[in-house]
Design brief:
The protein is of the alpha+beta class. It is built from eight helices and 23 strands. It folds into two domains: about 110 residues, Rieske Iron-sulfur Protein (3-layer Sandwich); about 280 residues, no CATH class. Keywords: 2Fe-2S, Iron, Iron-sulfur, Metal-binding, Oxidoreductase, Plasmid.
């Protein structure tokens, strides 16, 4: 359990809060690039870390992210005119550029220099991988953009989505680093009867066999390895044939996870706080997918009694069709006879349990077990960093640097181990599966026709 004081530190993210100040030191998704489809398009409201902002794409295609309330009299700039490289307030015509500078003040005398002394609060924006990222920390502490692989990702492979969750961000994060819940919340009766297709042996199992493993061993053992960027942990399960299946999930401080998948995975599930009571679940590809048949621990095809719109991912904002006010469309007869949860949509099963805790759960009431090791580790890293930053403004934070600080090499993985095989090399550059996939990708790029000069 946590003390109420530590629970407050963990969950509160607004300006001036210890955790809010930590999160502002990292480049953070502000919105999808597709939400601003072209120059001078309609502006978009953005609420991020408890701040109300407006995003707009100017005439040159540059994205501005500025305070929503006009510095003049507080009217919402969301209703402003996006024109000629600036957002113009509808109240008195004051115009602000992407840097927050007031570039026109037509309601003041032409001789006035007042506009040169007025600015809107603005945050820098960097587009990468289909996401517009921002840095909300002090200007003097800004860090280089953390490239998870999106900087060199071809635009045709950009696939970024987001889905809103109506609860505190930590509740969603705790589900992401909880490998045990898949054996319960996401289980269905037919998984136990899946026939062995020959892949229950050392090596890489089929996706459908992983469902069987989750059902067969519902009390996994957890092992954790601390890393320069956070930690990675293994969920070890015994398979029906007596082998050891390992699912390796990455935690990238402060709010990103890479969930286990066969043979490995680079897709991020990043939880971004809207405010204390709401968050966005961003999914984005960081590299060209190595495995088109499975991501995030759930098969991309329909297998079992689950809907799969969330797996057939398309770019954009994912609509919520399963909501608390409708009890997440739970079917009690299905719950009695077919699935453990009675909720048909896979992701909505997660939303049901995390949102049902209330907007901010009081962790002083909980009782944790051995399956919660990764959750405890994540909380400890976050709280320790928040307290350190509060005590010393120059305190180093996790995941800003490291001896080999290459964020492109962080990968989740899933495999059945050989006798005596150490799971820790899986998903690293030493993993033959990684080497084989990257060699195949290089060969594919070499075979691709290059554009002719002048094209």
């Amino acid at each position: 359990m946590l003390s109420q004081q530590d629970n407050e530190i963990l969950t509160r993210v607004g300006p001036g809060t210890p955790m809010g100040e930590v999160l502002r030191r990292y480049w953070t998704p502000a919105l999808l690039s597709s939400e601003l489809p072209g120059p001078d398009c309609d502006p978009v409201r953005v609420r991020l870390l408890g701040e109300n902002l407006v995003a707009f794409r100017d005439t040159n295609g540059r994205i501005g992210l500025i305070q929503e309330n006009c510095p003049h009299r507080g009217a919402s700039l969301y209703f402003g005119r996006n024109e000629e490289c600036g957002l113009r307030c509808p109240y008195h015509g004051w115009k602000f550029d992407a840097d927050g500078a007031c570039v026109d003040m037509p309601s003041e005398p032409p001789s006035s220099s007042f506009k040169d002394r007025v600015r809107a609060r603005a945050y820098p924006v960097h587009e990468s991988g289909g996401i517009a990222w921002t840095y909300m920390g002090p200007a003097e502490t800004i860090t280089p953009f953390r490239d998870f692989g999106t900087e060199s990702l071809p635009e045709k492979n950009h696939l970024a989505t987001k889905l809103q969750s109506y609860c505190n961000w930590i509740q969603t994060m705790e589900g992401n680093v909880d490998t045990a819940h898949i054996s319960w919340l996401h289980s269905w009766d037919g998984a136990a009867d899946i026939e062995d297709d020959g892949s229950d042996k050392p090596g890489y199992p089929s996706n459908k066999m992983t469902w069987k493993f989750w059902m067969h061993d519902r009390a996994p053992q957890l092992e954790i390895e601390e890393t320069w960027y956070g930690f990675r942990y293994a969920g070890l399960r015994e398979t029906p044939n007596g082998h050891t299946n390992v699912r390796i999930t990455e935690y990238v401080f402060p709010y990103s996870t890479i969930i286990a998948a066969v043979p490995y995975n680079t897709r991020h599930l990043m939880v971004v706080p809207i405010d204390d009571n709401n968050c966005w679940r961003y999914n984005f590809e960081a590299t060209v997918p190595s495995n088109p048949q499975g991501h995030g621990g759930a098969p991309l095809f329909s297998f079992g009694p689950f809907e799969t719109p969330f797996t057939r991912r398309v770019g954009g904002i994912t609509p919520r069709n399963y909501l608390a006010e409708a009890d997440y469309n739970i079917d009690r007869e299905v719950q009695r006879t077919t699935t453990f949860s009675g909720v048909k949509d896979f992701v909505s099963q997660d939303l049901m349990v995390t949102e049902s805790m209330g907007p901010i759960y009081d962790r002083s009431q909980e009782r944790l077990g051995t399956i919660d090791k990764a959750i405890i580790r994540m909380r400890n890293q976050l709280i320790r960093s928040a307290k350190s930053l509060e005590e010393n403004s120059d305190a180093p934070l996790l995941a800003l640097s490291g001896p080999d600080a290459d964020f492109r090499k962080i990968r989740g993985a899933d495999k059945i181990l050989e006798e005596g095989e150490d799971w820790r090399y899986l998903g690293t550059d030493d993993d033959p599966a990684v080497q084989e996939a990257e060699e195949a990708l290089r060969a594919s790029e070499e075979r691709s026709p290059q554009p002719a000069a002048g094209d």
